[in-house]
Amino acid sequence: MEKQIIKVNGMSCNHCKMSIEKALKEISVNGTVNLEAKTVTVEFDPRKSNLEQIIIEIEDQGYEVEK
């Protein structure tokens, strides 16, 4: 398993948290949102997912990932 911390702008409430975590779970990624730090900590199997795919999934939910 690989672990990364992604900085994400635009998250402000529990709905944001649940939206991102649910979307990541659908692509077999464990994601934990920290609203105060504006980060998403992801754990994933690099044979099944990659960081680019995870970023696209977060952005598809309407949030901006800092690169």
What's the quick description here?
The protein is of the alpha+beta class and 67 residues long. The chain has helices at 14-25, 51-60, and strands spanning 2-9, 30-34, 39-44, 64-65. It is globular.
Describe what you observe in this structure.
With 67 residues, this protein is α+β, with helices and mostly antiparallel strands. The protein has a single domain (2-65), classed as 2-Layer Sandwich (Alpha-Beta Plaits). The protein has two helices and four strands, in the order E-H-E-E-H-E. The chain starts with a strand and ends with a strand. The protein has helices at 14-25, 51-60, and strands spanning 2-9, 30-34, 39-44, 64-65. It has a four-stranded antiparallel β-sheet.
Indicate the topology.
Elements: E1 2-9, H1 14-25, E2 30-34, E3 39-44, H2 51-60, E4 64-65
Antiparallel strand pairs: 1-3, 1-4, 2-3
Q: Which architecture per CATH?
A: 2-Layer Sandwich
**Fold-level CATH name:** Alpha-Beta Plaits
CATH class: Alpha Beta
- Total number of helices: 2
Order of helices and strands: EHEEHE
Strand-residue proportion: 25-35%
Give the strand line-up of the largest sheet.
Answer: 2-3-1-4
* Mean pLDDT reading: 97
Based on CA atoms alone, the radius of gyration comes out at 11 Å
Largest sheet: 4 strands, antiparallel
Briefly note the structural class of the backbone.
alpha+beta
Share of residues in helices: 25-40%
Number of strands: 4
Number of domains: 1
Query: What's the N-to-C terminus distance?
Result: 22 Å
Uncertain segments are none
Using the alpha-carbon principal axes, give the shape: globular
